[in-house]
Design brief:
2 domains, mainly alpha, disordered N terminus, 20 helices
Length: 548
């Protein structure tokens, strides 16, 4: 080994961070009076550590022993009541071990396997069916796959220069996105100091950094390989079919099918889990609201609204006719499950997808075939078509009730108004936020059952991360939507997987609309995967340029 990993720490740090975009680390120059061995003896040179002296070793050992004593005493007293803070030193040690690993080939195939395992597991398996040990977070399918995935990402960055250079090249192509995600991750971390419940906020921070931030960087690399975005889209479509099948079964029996068949190892004595198993009803109607594998019917509806644009993409003429027919048949099924979930946000997302696809398809076909009067007629008539569709949601009784709601839904609308009235003064008084995971508590709004609740993710982001966090987060989403939309309506041809920029843009538009009335983050990993896919596809786009 001649890269300095044995001789000292300078070279590994330079190798790990030195080529990261915009990142520079100053190092102390080596002493000039030290003779350095040459040739085969170079790896065995004495490390030049200005902070280390043999006479100080007793002090370092004493401090280490004192830390171990305090750590062990606190662990014995506080566990299992408080566990998360005690995981920090082992995690730091693990990161140091990964950092010190010798150069090697990145385990890209293993990383891709865990990436798709995490993606499929979070969609088809109820997250509340997990193993719960005293004092520990739930051991769920998501956590069993995401933590190895994050470790593989850090290992690959540490040991493989090729992996690092490829990832950096893709990120540099769209620098604003990765910088905004990094800035938001810093704000999330800093917000822990504002929390009045440190262990709870730390657990939320770990979830955010592993299931959002790390997933974005993994997605940027995984989707650089042709074929993987299409495979991801097929997995999402298949998961949507599975979720709909479970939803229709639940609709027939009136509760989730696995409610009375849960093994004891997966039974969790938690009020949130019991509420998920009991299901929900529209109080004014007394009818069951389908939620399938999700904890709420709103989460189910949001997932289907994010899936529909990608399923619509399969209806395009470039695919096999059997695949196109299957996609065409599955879309009404998705809409039906949204209807029986009684979640208006999913129907709004479906309408956004329909209107956007009609315009984009007509616009691009008109550019490709200017002599075809059909597409010209669609474009000319589009304002009328879209106006009629929107007008039907106001003047057709059944459609109006499904999309905008009527008497039974008025309580939800009034609750959201009251939440904003409570939230805005709190944001003004604490423009820096209340800390990650504390938005619901800081708002102090209770539903009919006496549980704290918050509906708008806009409000939640502002309460937890402050005004700066709000601007960075939604600025990121809007900028990504702009990049995808600009390509979707450009005259440049979108061939192969580059055409996925169209459903990506529509899915992001759905997310922006839905988050105005839905604050849960169950589907956020999917959105960060979509952002990573956007970066990868823009890097692969013919004639690509810097999108800053």
């Amino acid at each position: 080994m001649t890269d300095g990993r044995i001789a000292g720490t300078d070279n590994p740090v330079r190798g790990l961070f030195g080529s990261w975009p915009g990142f520079r680390i100053p190092f102390r120059r080596p002493r000039r009076d030290v003779i350095k061995p040459l040739g085969p003896l170079k790896p065995f040179a004495k490390a030049q550590r200005s902070w280390y002296r043999p006479s100080r070793s007793w002090l370092l050992v004493s401090l280490l022993l004192l830390f171990c004593l305090i750590y062990g005493f606190a662990f014995a007293i506080l566990v299992p009541f408080i566990v998360v803070p005690f995981a920090i030193p082992p995690m730091i040690l693990l990161l140091l071990i990964i950092w010190a690993m010798p150069d090697a080939t990145a385990p890209v195939r293993t990383m891709a396997f865990f990436f798709f395992a995490f993606f499929i597991g979070m969609m088809v398996w109820p997250n509340y069916l997990s193993i719960a040990l005293p004092g520990l977070p739930w051991i769920s399918i998501k956590r069993l796959t995401v933590f190895p995935l994050v470790l593989l990402l850090l290992y690959s960055i540490s040991v493989s220069q090729e992996f690092k250079n490829t990832l950096i090249s893709a990120l540099k192509n769209v620098p604003i996105i990765w910088k905004a995600i990094a800035a938001f991750a810093i704000i999330e971390t800093a917000s822990v100091a504002l929390s009045n419940d440190l262990p709870f906020s730390l657990s939320k921070l770990i979830v955010a950094q592993t299931e959002w931030t790390a997933i974005f960087f993994v997605s940027c690399y995984v989707f650089l390989k042709p074929g993987r975005p299409t495979r991801w889209m097929l997995c999402m479509w298949g998961a949507g079919i599975w979720v709909c099948a479970m939803g229709i079964w639940e609709y027939r029996i009136g509760y989730v099918p696995w409610r009375d068949h849960i093994p004891s190892i997966f039974q969790i004595d938690d009020p949130a889990v019991q509420r998920a198993l009991a299901g929900s009803q529209r109080s004014a109607l007394g009818t069951h609201r389908v939620q399938s594998v999700f904890t709420t019917s709103l989460g189910l509806s949001e997932f289907l609204a994010l899936t529909i644009p990608f399923v619509m993409h399969f209806v395009g003429s470039e695919f096999n006719w059997k695949l196109r027919i299957a996609a065409l048949i599955s879309i009404p099924t998705f809409v039906f499950v949204i209807v029986i979930s009684q979640s208006r946000l999913g129907l709004v997302g479906s309408l956004v997808s329909l209107l956007a696809f009609i315009f984009i398809w007509a616009f691009r076909r008109r550019i490709a075939d200017k002599n075809n009067p059909f597409w010209t007629g669609i474009l000319v008539a589009y304002p009328v078509i879209s106006s009629l569709i929107v007008a039907s949601t106001f003047f057709v009784g059944r459609i109006h009730a499904r999309v905008w709601g009527n008497g039974p839904q008025q309580f939800s609308d009034q609750s959201r108004i009251e939440q904003w009235k409570l939230g805005i003064p709190k944001i003004i008084s604490h423009p820096w936020g209340y800390g990650i995971g504390k938005g619901n508590e800081s708002l102090g709004f209770l539903d009919q059952g006496g549980f704290g609740t918050i509906d708008s993710y806009y409000l939640l982001i502002a309460l937890e991360y402050g005004i700066v966090g709000f601007v960075i987060y939604y600025g990121l989403i809007f900028f990504a939507l702009y990049l995808a939309g600009k390509r979707a309506i450009s005259p440049e041809p979108l061939r192969g997987e580059n055409a996925l920029l169209i459903p990506i843009g529509i899915a992001l538009a759905n997310f922006i609309v839905i988050k105005s009335v839905f604050a849960q983050s169950d589907n956020h990993p999917i959105v960060f995967m979509i952002l990573g896919m956007l970066v990868a596809l823009l890097y692969r786009f013919p004639g690509k340029h810097n999108h800053s």
